[in-house]
Write a structure and sequence with these properties.
This protein has 14 helices and ten strands. By secondary structure, it is an alpha/beta fold. The protein folds into two domains: 241 residues, 2-enoyl-CoA Hydratase, Chain A, domain 1; 101 residues, no CATH class. The protein has a six-stranded mixed beta sheet. A two-stranded antiparallel sheet has the order 4-5. A hairpin with a 7-residue loop joins strand 1 and strand 2. Helix 2 runs parallel beside helix 4 and helix 9 crosses helix 11.
Length: 368
């Protein structure tokens, strides 16, 4: 972690000596989330071995939150507990008639406590350590019982939306293998709520969409079309519709997100420098400018390759600085020309007289 908030995250070189085929073997097992999120001796997890540290562990256990490292880069983590957990509400010592309550909370659903926990850690990661965020999505929606509505589950769900809207670091939403992202839970992690920072990905064996296939069939199709509707929930179709960036296989997910995160961190640092020169520049114009700089050195078709772009930004810093300096000088020249062309004759004469005799003579000779 950087010692000051204004400093950039440290991005070490990629390293992974374990078998990538084991990367998501845990997702097919019914075991605790700790073994799922980090690399253990038996199998390889998503994050670096021994790096996952859970936070708020004893509260709202249907959601697992914590911090970990991906290839050495620190990240905030939000995952889903797939098993049913018990929520024990102790008796009120001031009320002799009260009794201890044991509530069963199913996994893959947001309850009032877990929704608030999710919103809280997102705000902590953004406002405190300014960590990039990885969300392993597997929510079927919100718990819609009358008691949950009374305890304001929708309000706490809206807090999640508010926290993600204000997030200033890269956010990756990954629909993991054999999981489903549905209903109101889909709306809360939709990347359109913060398109500058959020990106959504899905494994080829995952499902995603506001409605399940049965719901789509009831509205649009006959029962015989249920299988056809299910095909529309696959990762390939989600990529074709533009709701996710592209499909990420479980065997390459760890490496993909490492280089994607590294590229985004390096690009964001360069974007901030560009914005200081031209505060009114749009993000699309910044992207086009970065593409032009990259095309001067490499093949333009490789601009979508995160590994290539990250290596270019990291290893050719001198060349990047040279391109940035030329662009900055060009912008300053254009601004100066615009000011000079709109200046009065008296102002131009005063500016000319303020120059040294040698500089004035050099300027006049160049105009002849």
């Amino acid at each position: 972690m950087p010692d000051l908030k204004i400093r950039e995250l440290f991005c070490p070189c990629w390293r992974d000596d374990a078998d990538p085929e084991q990367g998501f073997a845990y997702l097919y097992l019914n075991e605790d989330n700790y073994a799922k999120l980090e690399a253990r001796e038996a199998t390889l997890g998503f994050f670096d071995r021994g790096s996952f540290v859970e936070t708020l562990g004893g509260w709202a256990r249907t959601v697992v939150t914590g911090r970990a490292r991906l290839g050495g880069i620190p990240m905030g983590v939000i995952a889903v507990e797939c098993c049913t957990v018990e929520n024990i509400i102790p008796a009120d010592p001031t009320n002799p008639t009260s009794q201890e309550q044991v509530l069963q909370e199913s996994g893959t659903a947001w309850y009032p406590n877990s929704a608030y926990k999710t919103a809280q850690v997102i705000a902590d990661f953004n406002n405190g350590e300014q960590l990039p965020l990885m969300i392993f999505a597997n929510w079927r929606g919100f718990s819609g019982g009358q008691c949950d509505m009374y305890f304001e589950v929708l309000k706490y769900g809206a807090y999640i939306d508010d926290a993600l809207t204000k997030y200033k670091q890269p956010v990756f939403v990954y629909i993991i293998p054999n999981s489903e992202q549905r209903g109101g839970a889909w709306i809360l992690v939709d990347p359109t709520i913060n398109p500058e920072m959020m990106e959504m990905y899905a494994d080829s064996k995952s499902r995603g969409g506001v409605l399940e296939p049965e719901g789509i069939v009831e509205i649009k199709s006959k029962p015989i079309a249920a299988r056809f509707a299910d095909l529309h929930n696959r990762a390939g179709r989600m990529a074709a519709k533009g709701v996710i960036c592209h499909e990420v296989q479980r065997t390459t997910a760890r490496e993909h997100f490492y280089y994607r995160l590294k590229r985004q961190l390096l690009e964001e640092a360069l974007r901030r420098r560009i914005s200081t020169v031209v505060p009114t520049i749009t993000r699309d114009e910044q992207q086009q400018l970065l593409r032009e700089w990259f095309a001067n050195e490499e093949n333009d078709d490789e601009f979508e390759d995160d590994k290539m772009v990250a290596a270019w930004l990291e290893q050719k810093t001198d060349r990047v600085e040279e391109l940035f300096g030329k662009w900055k000088a060009k912008v300053e020249t254009e601004n100066m020309v615009q000011h000079v062309s709109s200046a009065s004759d008296d102002a131009l004469l005063a500016a000319l007289q303020s120059l040294s005799p040698e500089r004035r003579e050099q300027l006049l000779s160049s105009l002849q």
